[in-house]
Description:
By secondary structure, the protein is mainly alpha-helical.
Amino acid sequence: MSNQDLYVKSGYWTFLITLALNLVFFAYISFVHPGTPENPGFGDPSSQSK
């Protein structure tokens, strides 16, 4: 009997790379992106009212 892979290796690597890029993108949006003028981030000093 021959040894056969049960998955497509290129599809597996594509899935892993896409998953990693999505995680990096969501981390950037959540923790780095400064926000928009209508909804500034918490770190923006001009968004705090006096």
